[in-house]
Design goal:
Helix content: 25-40%
Distance between the termini: 9 Å
Number of strands: 17
Structural class: alpha+beta
Number of domains: 2
CATH architecture of the largest domain: 3-Layer(aba) Sandwich
Bound molecules: (2S)-amino(hydroxy)ethanoic acid, manganese (II) ion
CATH superfamily of the largest domain: Zn peptidases
Number of helices: 12
CATH class of the largest domain: Alpha Beta
Largest sheet: 9 strands, mixed
CATH topology of the largest domain: Aminopeptidase
Shape: globular
């Protein structure tokens, strides 16, 4: 194997940043024209470094190493949240390209829709491990505009394409390089994080039905304000959860849509996208019990009716000790004392791949901890160190 060409690696990242550019970040929602342009660009990049590349029926972009094994699988995602960061996902995919370019026996994959633009979550990585049914694809809709996934796949030119699966026994393990998306590394003056475990995200749609009516003529005593009922329920969750959640649990309301959404009309409907996260399933289950109890309480107390529907139920993952040890050894060799073992508060495709093979992740610092925002950034020297440590860890796992 040759040395990792970090200059070419950084060039790749900066070139990919221009596809769907938004201010200093990117806007590449899954299956959007700019996302599909990025996928076709990636096929060219994978081919140029000697892999046999293709895009499958769910949008996974896979580069297969043609030479003898044993092989590793290296990847992440290249779609992004809306108007978000240029490194979230792209870093891990282009790190795979850099390892392939250096001659390592790696397959590289950009898994589709890690960012969950469509209901279900981890569509690409669950598809490749055989955990995404056609029936689920038929049911899934875009979380923002409700577009059926089937229509989005057709518009992206992917309709009717076969979805690929992993070749059993082909890979010794899966590595993912990713930005931390938090402040721990930067706050501790460290440059690398070896991930110990990855949280699960349990995503919910909460719908409150009230009565649309006049904001002036309808007295406060008689109105059925779906917006206020939603806000009261979310406030009750925020009051109750600290007593039932875990130390690192998080809960977030990312979207509230009031219908019809006019200042002089009492909203008849509120649709809330709410999620919570933890590394422990019992803690997640406690939060689900708490949420459902608060919904029942709201239906007893309010004049509006509330329903709650789960739209994603990921599984947390523990990273593979041997793969972690390879990362730790490589980090200590290339950045002595400048690394730590840490959990991931973000979800990643690695937690899905971990159900089929040993998996581990390496973090590099996020400047200011910023992510899922166009200002997301990491120093070039930290990006370069990350891919070099990943390459060294890969050699250790491959016994080179
Ligand atoms: O939300 C997450 O944790 C991931 O970045 N999609
Ligand atoms: Mn990501
Ligand atoms: Mn993300």
């Amino acid at each position: 194997m040759g040395a990792i060409d970090t200059a070419a690696f950084l060039r790749d990242l900066y070139e990919l940043r221009e596809i769907g550019r938004f201010r200093s970040g990117v806007h590449r929602p899954t299956y959007s024209p700019q996302d599909m342009q990025a996928r076709r660009w990636l096929v060219e990049r994978l081919t140029a470094c000697g892999l046999v590349a293709s895009i499958d029926g769910i949008g996974n972009v896979y580069g297969r190493h043609p030479g003898p094994g044993p092989h590793l699988l290296v990847g992440s995602h290249i779609e992004t949240q809306n108007e978000a960061g240029w490194l979230d996902g792209a870093l891990g995919v282009m790190a795979g390209v850099a390892l392939a370019r250096a001659g390592l026996p790696v397959d590289v994959c950009a898994f589709a829709d890690e960012e969950g633009h469509f209901e279900g979550g981890f569509l690409g990585s669950r598809s490749i491990i055989g955990e995404l049914s056609d029936e689920e694809i038929d049911r899934s809709r875009n979380r923002t505009d409700g577009m059926p996934l089937r229509d989005a796949l057709r518009a992206a030119g992917l309709e009717g394409r076969a979805r690929m699966g992993l070749e059993p026994g082909r890979h010794k393990g899966y590595f993912e390089l990713h930005i931390e998306q938090g402040t721990q590394l930067e706050g501790s003056g460290l440059r690398l994080g070896v991930v110990s475990g990855i949280v699960a995200i349990w995503q919910w749609r909460i719908v409150v039905e009230g009565q649309q009516d006049h904001a002036g003529g309808t007295t406060m005593a008689e109105r059925r304000d779906a917006g206020l009922a939603a806000v009261r329920l979310l406030a009750a969750v925020d009051a109750e959860f600290p007593g039932i959640a875990g130390e690192r649990s998080t809960w977030t309301t990312g979207r509230i849509v009031l219908t019809p959404g006019a200042p002089s009309i009492i909203p008849g409907r509120a649709e809330v996208l709410f999620q919570f996260r933890d590394v422990s399933v019992p803690v997640l289950e406690r939060m689900e019990v708490g949420l459902r109890a608060l919904v029942r309480e709201s239906n007893r107390r309010e004049r509006c009716s509330v329903t709650v529907e789960q739209i994603a139920r990921a599984i947390p993952a523990v990273c593979d000790p041997a793969m972690m040890a390879a990362l730790e050894g490589a980090a200590e060799e290339l950045a002595p004392g400048a690394w730590q073992v840490m959990p991931s508060g973000a979800g990643h495709d690695a937690q899905v791949l971990a159900r089929r093979m040993p998996a581990a992740m390496l973090f590099v610092p996020s400047i200011g901890g910023v992510s899922h925002h166009w200002a997301e950034d990491t120093k070039d020297e930290d990006l370069a160190l990350g891919v070099e440590v990943l390459g060294e860890a890969a050699l250790r796992v491959l016994g080179r």
